[in-house]
């Protein structure tokens, strides 16, 4: 993978967006197993209804994993210095997530050239489900 | 209301082996297409010693090592009313399949918002590998609705 060149990047540049397939029950079952997050709210409809939810919904960390994919599609993982996400809404079953990132700062930090990337994951209505940021070191 | 005495309390230290099959299962579950996360030969060709642990999988290893529901009960959280509020990772070195990672977990903070309608529990974990190398620091903020 080629490293994005620090000098060629500008504040306002966007990372290629990532659009995973719609969230299905199978997606949630696989993610529950693979992630070790077995919270029944994401996989057991009876439990979800008893807890007052209309249906199961996605793990926040599934959307975070999609954000992680977008980052590692753009830059090698060893360049990522930090990743922070805030879960601002529930990603519902059948939602169509889109992850996006925009460079909001270029800086020298700890002797490295770094960019700060503002992150979002939204559903098909454009409603924010994740807002966050990553810091990535680039040559 | 959560117990303020939890602040600073250790939730223990646990180690977990990073299994390559788990990494491939996770890659499948998140629809990963980048071959370095799926194919050990591709990972090696990209300069990695083995399949890399992807950026958010450290959180999965933490909950696998600790049994997150057990941790929630320790803090007297009711799992049916708890949501993940925030998750942060600071990365210091890569982790790979075949590593054994140790998570040192503690309660960093406990506080309330909205006049007690929301309880917040902040958990920090320091992650090291089998060589004592500092891999990452994780912070999880979980929120309990009290309505």
Helix-strand category of chain B: alpha+beta
- Count of DSSP H/I helices of chain A: 3
Given as residue ranges, the uncertain stretches of chain B (5+ residues, pLDDT < 50) are: none
Radius of gyration of chain A: 17 Å
Strand content of chain A: 25-35%
Global structural class of chain A: alpha+beta
Shape of chain A: elongated
Distance, first to last CA of chain A: 14 Å
Proportion of residues in helical segments of chain A: 10-25%
Query: How many separate helices of chain B?
Result: 4
**Protein chain pair with the most extensive contact, residues per chain:** A-B, 41 and 36 residues
As a percent range, the share of strand residues of chain B is 35-45%
Rounded to the nearest angstrom, the radius of gyration of chain B is: 17 Å
- Give the strand line-up of the largest sheet of chain B: 1-3-4-5-2
What does this entry show, briefly?
The complex is a heterodimer of chains A (139) and B (147). Chain A has 139 residues and is of the alpha+beta class. In chain A, 23% of the residues lie in helices and 29% in strands.
Pick out its properties.
heterodimer; A: 139 residues; alpha+beta; Thiol Ester Dehydrase, Chain A; 4-stranded antiparallel beta sheet; elongated; B: 147 residues; 5-stranded antiparallel beta sheet; 4 helices; 5 strands
Give a description of the structure.
The complex is a heterodimer of chains A (139) and B (147). Chain A is of the alpha+beta class and 139 residues long. Chain A has one domain: Thiol Ester Dehydrase, Chain A (Roll). Chain A is built from 3 helices and 4 strands; from the N terminus they run H-H-H-E-E-E-E. Chain A has helices at residues 25-35, 45-50, 60-74; strands spanning 80-87, 98-109, 112-122, 128-137. In chain A, strands 1-4-3-2 form a 4-stranded antiparallel β-sheet. In chain A, strand 2 (98-109) and strand 3 form a beta hairpin. The longest helix of chain A is centred in the middle third of the chain and has 15 residues, at 60-74. Chain A is elongated and about 55 Å long. Chain B is built from 4 helices and 5 strands. Chain B is elongated, with a radius of gyration of 17 Å. In chain B, helix 3 (57-66) packs across helix 4. Chain B has helices at residues 20-29, 40-45, 57-66, 68-74, and strands spanning 10-17, 82-91, 100-113, 118-128, 134-145. With 147 residues, chain B is of the alpha+beta class. A 5-stranded antiparallel β-sheet of chain B has the order 1-3-4-5-2, covered by helices on one side. Chain B has one domain (4-145): Roll (Thiol Ester Dehydrase, Chain A). Helices cover 22% and strands 37% of the residues of chain B. Chain A binds chain B through residues 1, 20-21, 27, 30-31, 33-39, 41, 47, 50-51, 59-62, 64-69, 71-73, 76-78, 80-87, and chain B through 22, 25-26, 28-32, 34, 37, 46, 52, 54-57, 59-61, 63-64, 68-69, 79-81, 83-91, 94.
